From TrEMBL:
Pfam families: 2OG-FeII_Oxy (PF03171), DIOX_N (PF14226)
Keyword tags: Antibiotic biosynthesis, Iron, Metal-binding, Oxidoreductase
GO biological process entries: antibiotic biosynthetic process
Limits of the Fe2OG dioxygenase domain: 172-273
SUPFAM superfamilies cross-referenced by the UniProt entry: Clavaminate synthase-like
Lineage: Bacteria, Bacillati, Actinomycetota, Actinomycetes, Micrococcales
Cited PANTHER family: 2OG-FE(II) OXYGENASE FAMILY, PUTATIVE (AFU_ORTHOLOGUE AFUA_2G00750)-RELATED, OXIDOREDUCTASE, 2OG-FE II OXYGENASE FAMILY PROTEIN
Domain of life: Bacteria
Pathway: Antibiotic biosynthesis
Transmembrane segments: none
Name by which UniProt lists this protein: Fe2OG dioxygenase domain-containing protein
Gene Ontology molecular function: any one: metal ion binding
Length: 332
């Protein structure tokens, strides 16, 4: 499992349009990559190049807006953790991340009362100065959701479950897109984003062409994961590890800041269940169960099955300013 590896595996989604043998080959490659590494490149996903180019152009336009326009949609105005975070405004492992970003989640009505995680539901903050952002990100979210569901069905098959095993949990998915910009490093500070596991189920990441910086933990090494043209970098989060007793791995990753004066854009899409749902547990076939280490619970980062609980924990920790303004009762 911890044999050395120079780069992430590459998996071709278009195999799923082939015959039974192609589908089986895809499912096995997916299972192996996420058991051994937790990360892979996904090619053959069918999203046209010009759609991706348009998305990055939109991200560039957003970050180039006057600061006042970005601060109009600052996350501190949103109890639902939506909107803009300025560089240095976010923490990972208690240390400052050197990146600016806007978070856009599933557009929902407010829910008053009930479980604390209901506070994650609500409207996004859309910048008046860039009206094209909303249709662009809505389209991207729909495209990524289709790929996400396709991958979840393949995991279910490969893990020996019915292929619709995860469908119900995703009837009202919690999607989240981040547009992220990493400025060049400031002195000897290099934490673009600190080492972390994603708190949810599945992440589909697009990286600006030719921009290195992402690193993925493997055994005692950090593997560089530069962008492969047109490919997503895909990884699973803590909840997928949780429901497979650790057979599938949520892997720590980090981003090193680009050189001084340079910058790097990235666009992660997080695909997760409804806030009130848990991912169903998978009863692994015996030969897979024998290789499942169980879930190691970190006392500083306890994994709970219900998605909203897991996400709220991560959000309160990453955005202490939003927590202090809108959720003082939750952070004491
Ligand atoms: O920017 C990247 O390449 C990765 C970002 C990431 O890991 C995250 O936002 O969870
Ligand atoms: Fe991440």
């Amino acid at each position: 499992m911890s044999t050395s590896l120079d780069s992430l595996p590459i998996i071709d989604l278009s195999l799923l349009a082939g015959d039974g043998a192609d589908v089986a080959a895809f499912d096995q490659a997916l299972l192996r990559a996420t058991h051994e590494v937790g990360f892979f490149y996904l090619v053959g996903h069918g999203i046209p190049e010009d759609v991706v180019e348009h998305l990055f152009a939109e991200a560039e336009r957003f970050f180039a807006l006057p600061e006042a326009d970005k601060l109009d949609v600052e996350m501190t105005r949103s109890p639902h953790f939506r909107g803009y975070t300025r560089t240095g405004g976010e923490l990972t492992e208690g240390r400052v991340d050197w990146r600016e970003q806007i978070d856009v989640g599933a557009e929902r009505d407010l829910v008053t009362g009930g479980a604390a995680y209901n506070r994650l539901e609500g409207p996004n903050l859309w910048p008046d100065a860039l009206p094209s952002l909303r249709p662009t990100l809505t389209d991207w979210s729909q495209r990524c959701s289709i790929i996400g569901m396709t991958l979840l069905r393949a995991w279910a098959r490969a893990l020996g479950a019915a292929e619709d095993r995860f469908d119900d949990a995703f009837d009202r998915p919690s999607t989240l897109i981040k547009l992220v910009r990493y400025p060049g490093r400031d002195g000897d500070k290099r934490q673009g984003v600190g080492a972390h596991k994603d708190p949810g189920v599945l992440t589909l990441l697009m990286i600006e062409p030719e921009k290195a910086g992402l690193q993925v933990e493997h055994g005692t090494d950090w593997i560089d994961a530069p962008p492969v043209p047109g490919a997503f970098v895909v990884n699973i989060g803590e909840l997928m590890e949780f429901v497979t007793d650790g057979y599938l791995r949520a892997t720590r990753h980090r981003v090193l800041s680009p050189p001084a004066g340079a910058s790097r854009l990235s666009i992660p899409f997080f695909f997760n269940p409804s806030v009130d749902r848990a991912m169903p547990h998978i009863d692994l076939p015996a030969e897979l169960a024998a290789q499942a280490p169980g879930v190691s619970q970190d006392p500083d980062n306890v994994i709970s099955g219900t998605f909203g609980d897991n996400l709220l924990k991560a959000r309160l920790r990453a955005h202490p300013d939003v927590a202090a303004i809108h959720h003082p009762d939750l952070v004491g």
